[in-house]
Structures are given as structure tokens and as C-alpha cells.
Amino acid sequence: MFYLPCKIGTFVFMNFKRFKSNLIQLSTIDSTSNYAANLLKTTNVVNGTTILTKRQENGRGQLGTTWHTAPGKNLILSTIIFPMLKNERAFYLNIAVSLAVNRTLKELGIESKVKWPNDIYVDGNKIAGILIENQIQGKQIHSSIIGLGLNVNQLIFPPEINATSIAMEKGIDMEITDVFEKYFVNLDFYIDMLMQSNFDLLLKKYYSVLYRYNELYKFKDVTGNFEGRITGIDAVGKLQILTQKGLRKYDLKEVQFCL
Q: What is the value of pTM for the model shown?
């Protein structure tokens, strides 16, 4: 594990609803999530503390997958928050973060969809991935590390990955700092909505941008390929798909979209 020159500072765009402006910038790091987890163990960090890096050596996705990113081309960060959310509402963190990314892209002129549970897609191509790690105390989520990888200026991806970036969609390079500032403001907005317990409104907004929502589509699970319609998520965030044989519910990695 090694870190290159670090800059710690503040950033100012508006009065935040929930966050404090505490930004840690690192040139190279193994994982922003690992760095954030260590901060939580050793330091009294403020709500909204964010670790931002140009190069991540060991980026992680959901359930041990790997996040591929070109150094210096994309937005790679982890934000520490203290949601004080009941455990059974954990998936609403995914909802809030997904909506923040979706709104950021919309402000940049890019229409996107949220692919359950933790990806953001543009016309069938992945543009962002989200990883949330929660620290539990009793029946509440005491703290969360919100990891985001958002493709900004990368133009070439591994052939096995259906991916896109902001630059590919808009035809121009973007200032990564500008994209970060938009995202951080939007994340603060939706986390505030979550902490005010506006669950119904968050869910309504989530369904409005949910990938393949209420569309007849092909999926795959352990039994094979099948067709169905996504009807929503249940109380704990499982995906609900209505098929000819009835309603099926899926947890993480239990179902695949046949892209």
C-alpha cells in the first residue's frame, strides 16, 4: 500500500444540507474505500469527507469484482457519511447515490438509467459503478463509505466491457473537478432527502430512471434464460421480476440482464 502526494482542503460551491467540505486528494492509492475505512478507524472525520484520486491500483466493485479505469481520466472517489439509517432501509442509500449520479449526468446533457443494483447506464453502456460499504451499530447503519467510479474522459475500454464515458457521449473532454463538484452537491441533496425519511419520493424518482423498468426483457438466473418485467424492488432492495410463472425476487448477483 502506498500513497503519493496528498492535498487536504475544502471546496466551496454552496451551503450544503448535510455535508462538510473536507476533501483529501491523492495522486495514487490502492483503494479510496480502503483509505476511507482506515480514516473511520483512526480519525474523527466529518460527514461528507471525500477521498479523491487520479489513480487507483486495486479498485473494487460489488462482491469482489474489479473496476477498470485509466489513470487520470475518470472520477474515482469515496465519501464517508453518517446516515443513522435503520438496517432494513440500507438499499435506500443505493437509491440516493444512483439518483445523484443520474442527476449529475443530466446536468451535463446526458440521459442515463440506473441498472439495478449499482450501475449507471447510457444507451446500454456502463458509465458508472457504485459500491457502498456500511458499518453497523445495533439496528442502525452508523457510517457508510460511498465509492463511485464515473467514466469521464476515458475513450478506450477492454473489449469485453460495454462501457462509455462523458467524453464519448459529448465529444469533448471534461474537467474532472467540475464533474465532481456537481456530483457532490447532488449527493448532498439526495442524502438529505434520505435522512428526512422521504422514502416514497426517493423510490418514485428511482423507478422513473430504473433500467428496463416495466419492459418485457430477457434475463438469466441459475435456471436459465427467461422473459419478464421488472415491477420494482421489495422492502430490502431485492429486484422483483414478473414472469409468466409468477413473481420472482433476486438478491445481488442472482440474476443477469441479457444485454
A: 0.91
In a shared domain, residues 183 and 62 = yes
Do 75 and 169 have their domain in common?
yes
Q: 253 and 187 share a domain?
A: no
Rounded Cα distance, 144 and 135, in Å: 6
Task: Give the per-residue pLDDT at 5.
Answer: 43
Query: What is the pLDDT confidence band of residue 14, given thresholds at 50, 70 and 90?
Result: low
Per-residue pLDDT tens digits for 208-250: 999 999 999 999 999 999 999 999 999 999 999 999 999 999 9
Residue 1 lies in a domain: no
Task: Look up the domain containing 107 and give its range.
Answer: 6-208
